[in-house]
Amino acid sequence: MIEELRGRVGEAARHAFGCRVLERLLEHCPIDCVAGLLGEVRDDAVELSRHAFGNYVVQHAFEHGSTELRHEIVQAMLPEICKLARHKSASHCVESALLHCCEEDRQAMKLAMAGDTEELASLTSSNFGSFVVKEMRKR
């Protein structure tokens, strides 16, 4: 199954049932077996995080991926982290990153989102960003 998904992870992640297949693979397969799939998730993480189904795969990548993979996904998301934190689906990925990433990556995300007081106030007052701010305060 993993071989069949190679090169098609983005397509599967955007499918109502394909995302669930990917989630189960990430949960139950050894990391070295799904490393190629996770690489594809990393390469498409920003767009997947905005997708109604793809965001679940990104969240699972944060939960079940390696520290290095988490770091790489955060680095891909950082330039757009404030927009992602306000997005209906992507905000869940930002929360997951704050929950599962190392302290260094958490601090980088917090700085990007809260470095400007106006940006933080805007994020706090947004429907989905307010949940991200609550997660920031916990960590």
From TrEMBL:
InterPro entries named in the record: ARM-like, ARM-type_fold, PUM-HD, Pumilio_RNA-bd_rpt
All copies of domain PUM-HD, residue ranges: 1-139
Pfam families from the UniProt entry: PUF
Gene3D superfamilies reported for this sequence: Leucine-rich Repeat Variant
This protein's UniProt keywords: Repeat
Signal peptide: none
Pumilio repeat feature ranges: 4-39, 40-75
Name used for this protein in its record: PUM-HD domain-containing protein
UniProt organism field: Prorocentrum cordatum
Taxonomic classification: Eukaryota, Sar, Alveolata, Dinophyceae, Prorocentrales
